[in-house]
Amino acid sequence: MSDALASDKSILDEFVDRCRTIASGDDPVAALTREMERLVADPSALGETVSVPTAGASIAGFDEIVFEDDSVTVYLVHSAPDVVQPPHDHLMSAVIGVYEGRERHRFFRRSRDVPVPSGTADVDAGDVLALGPSAIHAISAPGAWCRAVHVYLGSLSSVDRTLFDPDTLDAEPMTAERYDAHCRHEPVRSTSWG
Ligand SMILES: [Fe+2]
């Protein structure tokens, strides 16, 4: 374990403070990406400083809110193994850093308001992914729990977001209940998603 991280019990609090400063500055996505790269540079050490939830899981896992105001939202996202979560948007830029396991992303682009599969990416422990405000993605954790920090440049709970049925890709308003209803507990295949 890194001594610097091990001795710092408020590493997430300090990270939030830096995110808030970055959010009001120039080129926040680039600066936040660099800040996230520093946060997850030693992923096992970060994992040892962040507690693992033990109750309250949905089929998708656990979402823990660390901080939210009008400028930035910080979540810990603990994704359960082999649950295919549904496509959704955020309507704001996001930066994701993984500190345990692998977060698999399926991406979609809008074509005449219909989401069309547009690729995939695996984000492993220690890696960082930035998403633009028009991004639509669906995440999963192949084979093992994935734990990640998700930062959004705005108040995520304040916007009317869209969720997509994973089978039909029909759009509907995002709610936690509907998100869970669209989760599919099945082995996360590596090649079936376009
Ligand atoms: Fe998301």
Automatic annotation (TrEMBL):
It comes from the Bacteria. InterPro entries: RmlC-like_jellyroll, RmlC_Cupin_sf. This is Putative metal-dependent enzyme (Double-stranded beta helix superfamily).
